[in-house]
Amino acid sequence: MVANNGAPVVALLLLLVSAAARAAGDGLLQNGNFEYSPNKSQMNGTRVMGEYAIPYWKVTGFVEYIASGQKQGDMLLTVPEGAHAVRLGNEASIQQQISVTRGMYYSITFSAARTCAQSEKLNVSVAPGPESGELPIQTVYTSSGWDSYAWAFKAKRGLVSLIIHNHGEDDDPACGPLIDSVAIKTLYPPQATQTDNMLKNGDFEEGPYVFPNARWGVLLPPNTEDEHSPLPGWMVLSYTKAVKYVDSAHFAVPHGARAVELVSGLETALMQEVPTVPGRSYRLEFSVGDAGDSCVGSLQVRAYAGEGCTTVPYNSQGTGGHTRASLEFAAVADVTRVVFVSSSYITKWDGTLCGPVVDDVSLVCVSQQAPPSRRLLRL
Question: Phi and psi at residue 42, in whole multiples of 5°?
């Protein structure tokens, strides 16, 4: 017999809904912004008590359902989009099943914020499969405290479970990170930006999902934390820092709709390896500018290719603009690394990190003939 309040029926419906897998497409996961709230019967204050209490999600450990404007001591908790988010305490996780295409690549984008812990990290993984990445979130790149992160994976099965986990060792489980707005995007093999461009995805148009209302871009983690880059063709080289993927809807972009902002100074490099012929000459061309995000100062990008190197200065007023640069070099190996790094650390008026924008990168061969190989003469 069902009680008058219908709580058992509601709980059963939520369980069935939560178990349904979402067919992967570009955009939010089902209840990816956590606006469908748990039933009050499965809550203890802010703590979520039922494993399937949050529609479409499975939770384990100390998970809280947070409303925007909620206070924690003297801290006012905000939510970047909508009215709700979740907080993961020590050894807590959220997960959702997603229907994907086996063998395809996907990128997950989600927003996260620190609360009171100082060295927070989030582990993102898919199951089944060994792929996982531990994303450091202790560096905050926005004045609001919220950043969006991207992480990529290759689907080993047609049905996978996305898991976001907080290892956490803080004495207070309520010091865990906040999570909001979880989305997915299919990553396709990058198309050549020009017929003779040897670089893949040189205009950065193929990349992770960008939230339409997010004005802070998407952070791309170092490849030590992500086996498959959410920016196809490119690798981010760093220990803990990231580069920022920016869009023309919210930033000044030199070319097309996407670009990369080097926000971590000398600690992070953007790199792609390209097959080359030793002895042949090549020309690397690219745009350097500012993202129109109030990043004011002397910006510098250092570009490396083979044994060639050039430094491109750009005096930024923080309102957008760019300059074109080039580097000619002779290949010395079968594979050449093209590397971009910001040679200085820049902060905005609010103290957050920023840097130069790189875009519209091309690499072309300017001499088709390699020098003749040396032959031994028989006397």
Answer: -110, 25
The token duo for 291 is 């993202």
Second CATH level (architecture) for the domain 188-371: Sandwich (2.60)
Q: Which of 24, 202, 171, 166 is nearest to 109 (CA)?
A: 24
Residues of the chain with pLDDT under 70: 1-25, 72-75, 117-119, 171, 173, 191-195, 224-227, 368-379
Backbone dihedral angles phi then psi of residue 114, each to the nearest 5 degrees: -75, 160
Using DSSP, state whether 189 is helix, strand or coil: coil
Contact criterion met (CB below 8 Å) for 180 and 81: yes
Q: Would the pTM count as exceeding 0.85? A: yes
8 Å CB contact between 346 and 354: yes
What is the structure's pLDDT at 194? Answer: 57
Return the SS3 of 330: strand
The Cα angle at residue 34 between residues 31 and 39, in degrees rounded to 5: 100
The first and second tokens of residue 378, run together, are 């028989």
CB atoms within 10 A of CB 234: 26
Indicate the CATH number of 7-187 among 2.60.40.10, 3.40.50.150, 2.60.120.260, 2.40.50.1020: 2.60.120.260
Q: Distance (Å, rounded) from C-alpha 254 to C-alpha 191?
A: 19
Q: State the Cα angle at 90 between 89 and 96, rounded to 5°.
A: 65
Strands 353-354 and 346-347: antiparallel
User: Interior CA angle at 274 toward 343 and 236, to 5°?
Assistant: 40
Which of 109, 115, 124, 119 lies closest to 86 in space, CA to CA?
Answer: 115
